[in-house]
Specification:
mainly alpha, elongated, 3 helices, 2 domains
Length: 67
C-alpha cells in the first residue's frame, strides 16, 4: 500500500523539484490532500486483500496468490 501511495504522491511532489524544505513539506501536504477518494478506496481494498492472504497462508510467502 505505502509503495503505491508514495509513488503516486512522489510524482506530484517532484514534478518541479522543490528548492527548500518548507516547499517540499507544502507540496507533500497538497499532494496527499488531493488524492482522489477512488484511489484511497482501491488502496484500502488492496491492503485488506494482502492482509487476508497473509492470514490465510499463516504468514508464509503469498505474493504469488495476489494475481
Amino acid at each position: 500500500m505505502d509503495f503505491f501511495l508514495w509513488g503516486y504522491t512522489k510524482d506530484r511532489v517532484y514534478k518541479n523539484r522543490p528548492r527548500e524544505l518548507e516547499e517540499l513539506k507544502s507540496r507533500i501536504e497538497e499532494a496527499m490532500h488531493s488524492i482522489p477518494q477512488e484511489v484511497l478506496v482501491r488502496v484500502k481494498e488492496a491492503f485488506v486483500k494482502r492482509v487476508e492472504k497473509v492470514v490465510g497462508t499463516e504468514c508464509k510467502h503469498f505474493e504469488n496468490l495476489l494475481h
